[in-house]
Amino acid sequence: MVRQKTAAEAEEASHDRLSIRLDLESGARIGPGKIAVLEEIARSGSLSAAGRAMGMSYRRIWELVDDLNRSLGAVLVEKTAGGSGGGGAVLTEAGRAVITCYHGIEDDAERAAAPHIARLREALAAG
Amino acid sequence: MVRQKTAAEAEEASHDRLSIRLDLESGARIGPGKIAVLEEIARSGSLSAAGRAMGMSYRRIWELVDDLNRSLGAVLVEKTAGGSGGGGAVLTEAGRAVITCYHGIEDDAERAAAPHIARLREALAAG
Fold first, then answer.
1. In chain A, N or C: fewer CB atoms in 10 Å?
2. What is the tens place of the pLDDT at every residue in B60-92?
3. How many C-beta atoms lie closer than 10 Å to residue B103's C-beta?
């Protein structure tokens, strides 16, 4: 399952934010933009709908997905046979695993960051 | 003290890398580029030398420092009176605290990321 923060969790979080980019040994680069694309494909069930929602061309969406597929050596998104309106797209297990990994790192890193940021605030206040 | 990884620590680390950008509630945005600028100022003791080392103009270096000073509400870099060649620059306690905070988050986040990345690798191998 894709991990979504509840409204209550988002509410109680501080307004400090970490943005994380993951550069894997394989050459894969995974950041907030690609994760948002995968999540939008999962939500909408279609590459072109994801493109519309994100203001990106179908071609650009596919390039991002294809780049991840190649660099991770796994198929993250499968095109599904469709009716007259063309096919849809679904995330594979590997695709869902990428999202889970990313948000897991994000959640743990935000928790780990809190005491460092608190110490920085003290130093700034003292300075 | 500015935390530097020893060669041994760098050696044993995996080649997976996290890049972190910190967006603080105050509006400050702190990422690898600004941290590298602060570190180069600390190393070289001069804004213009830091600019030369990083291929950036003095003006650009100063803009980055000034942006941090304003958004954090603290002076991170102090210009020092110089001789005939013009003055130098040193980091204040607050400037050093920013670097320490950033690398502390980076170190903890990399440690926290490792098991998530291991699980991702398993999922990719199984897919």
1. N
2. 999 999 999 999 999 999 988 765 555 799 999
3. 18
Quote the CA–CA distance of A27 and A69 in Å, as a whole number: 11
Residues lower than pLDDT 50 in chain A: 11
Judge if ipTM > 0.85.
Answer: no
Chain A contact probe: residue of B105, B106, B110 with most A CBs at under 10 A: B105
What is the least distance, in Å, from the CA of A88 to any CA of chain B?
20
Chain B nearest-CA distance from A29, in A, is: 9
Q: Is the pLDDT of residue B10 over 70?
A: no
Tell me which chain A residue has its CA closest to the CA of residue B101.
Answer: A116
CB contacts of A116 in chain B (<8 Å) are 100-101, 104-105, 108
Give CA separation, A92 vs A27, A68, B9, B127, in Å.
Answer: 21, 13, 36, 8
Is residue B11's pLDDT more than 50? no
Contact A105 B93 (CB under 8 A): no
Give the HSE-up count for residue B65: Cα atoms under 13 Å, Cβ half-sphere.
30
pLDDT at position A11: 47
pLDDT at site B85: 52
List the structure tokens of A58: 């179908």
